[in-house]
Amino acid sequence: MEMFDYPFMQRAFIAGLMIALLASLSGSFIVLRRYSLLSETLAHVSLVGVSLGLLFGLSPLWMAVAASLVASWLIEYLRSVHGMYSDSILAIFLSGSLALAIVIVSLAGSFNASLFSYLFGSILSVSNEDLWVMGVFGSLAMALLLIFFKELYFIAFDEEVARAGGIRVTLLNFMLVSVIAIIIALSIRVVGTLLIGALMVIPPVAAIRFGMGFFKTTILSALIALLSVVIGLIGSYIFALPSGAAIVLCLLVIFVIALAVNRR
Description:
By secondary structure, this protein is an all-alpha fold. The protein has helices at 7-32, 37-56, 60-80, 86-108, 113-120, 128-147, 149-157, 159-164, 169-187, 196-208, 214-239, 243-261. It is globular. The model has no long low-confidence stretch (mean pLDDT 87).
């Protein structure tokens, strides 16, 4: 328990638990609708925002939020309005944003420690200001997901049936991708740009293996994410490991256990 004597560990646990809850809840919807690559794509887009922030001396966190939001709206617009296949759109944005980030980093002239911490996560980089931003935007994202939980559930199963039932499918789809974009941008300080997709996808996939209803699966997904964050942060402190990598390794262990227990 001595780790909690350090303020940076206190901030890391608070931020990690918030992000775990938000990522697992929103991840349940994108996994159900086979849209899992969205998290990885927006994570790469947020890296563009971070790179721009570091290059021009702006807030990397706010730039990541802005870049992720704009990209999420463009992706949903191309999918819903122009009827493009979602996997094709995500592949284009993923590769394009990664290429753009590399160009921006090369213009900056160095691959500095700040960018490295955003790539793989760093518990030392979470500040009190970050916690306030995560708390405000995280609460808003959680409220939206809970208020429209039933509608998002119907849309995830069948958009056409949901639209025929009077649900505002297009508006809620834009809301969902916006919430996911914000969650991903807020998460990169704890888990890292390259690993946040795992925190959003692996818990729901592992929970689905137990064959419960959607609501119970969502609860189990959140518990898996929270447990992985706690164990991962403790392991990163004891063994001096990168926090994001430690959390994802815990998620993978739980996923393997879920596969072993439920071989259906």
